[in-house]
Amino acid sequence: MGELVVDKHVKYILSVEKRKDSFESVVLEHLRMNGAYWGLTTLDLLGKLGALDSNEVIQWIMKCQHESGGFAGNIGHDPHLLYTLSAVQVLALFDKLNVLDADKVANYISGLQNEDGSFSGDEWGEVDTRFSYLAICCLSILHRLDKMNVEKAVNYIASCKNVDGGFGCTPGGESHAGQIFCCVGALAITGSLHHVDKDLLGWWLCERQVKSGGLNGRPEKLPDVCYSWWVLSSLIMIDRVHWIDKDKLVKFILNCQDTENGGISDRPEDAVDVFHTYFGVAGLSLLEYPGLKAIDPAHALPVDVVNRIFFQK
């Protein structure tokens, strides 16, 4: 089994940030805030966050904030909960949450809660349990959970639980590992994990491991490195992570590395990207791979960052 090529991954992430005119960069322009979160959190987990200029990043992030308090995926784009959480997470990485007007951001988020407790992702009104997680995680980091109706939000998430123990994007929606992470993460942050049938859900999640050692998101699908995060973090939060073969999963993730140029892909031999690089390294962190910082499974930030947010005076 190969080892994690840390220096190559650091070099890859820094090169992606510089290539602003590449095809991938242009196509993903609207997602740059997420890309910043994926890349920078990976650098922090690898112990290399100091490899770039934080002031430049913070200035750019603040230019993506709208008058509403929400953040866009890039300058000149519309605000959305997805980018708002990524912006707050990146500021937390750099210990710069103080540059925010936390109440302004919190008012934007709480204003997207619907009467039934669900959340819309933005002003256009699409509802999804992903948005419930984004709102709860972001308000938690800002110490502003009291700005939303937590009880209604939790009850809405509970209404999206299925007979297999999993969760969907709306009531009656198919169980999917990504949605399960969002629902379990939101319930964990709000102290509401009693709504989860841990054995039933744990069984569904551990069944996601295929022969190669990788994890898929739904039955009969191909394995994908990103589920190393969605599935593993959920299993850790419900205390059932010992139900999968950790060594085989480590091997699968390491086999998805580009050992020459850095970066991690969805499956062995595929093209690498920042998204899968982050989820691969985050998955290895959850698996306690040597040399990586620990990551918090609910807030998706390094444990030392989360400790700083909640325990530092």
Automatic annotation (TrEMBL):
Co-factor remark: Binds 1 zinc ion per subunit.
Keyword check for Disulfide bond: no
Cofactor(s) recorded in Swiss-Prot or TrEMBL: Zn(2+)
Keyword Zinc: yes
Gene3D superfamilies: 1.50.10.20
Its job: Required for male fertility and root tip growth. Catalyzes the transfer of a geranylgeranyl moiety from geranylgeranyl diphosphate to both cysteines of proteins with the C-terminal sequence -XXCC, -XCXC and -CCXX.
Name of the featured protein: Geranylgeranyl transferase type-2 subunit beta
Species this protein is from: Salix purpurea (Purple osier willow)
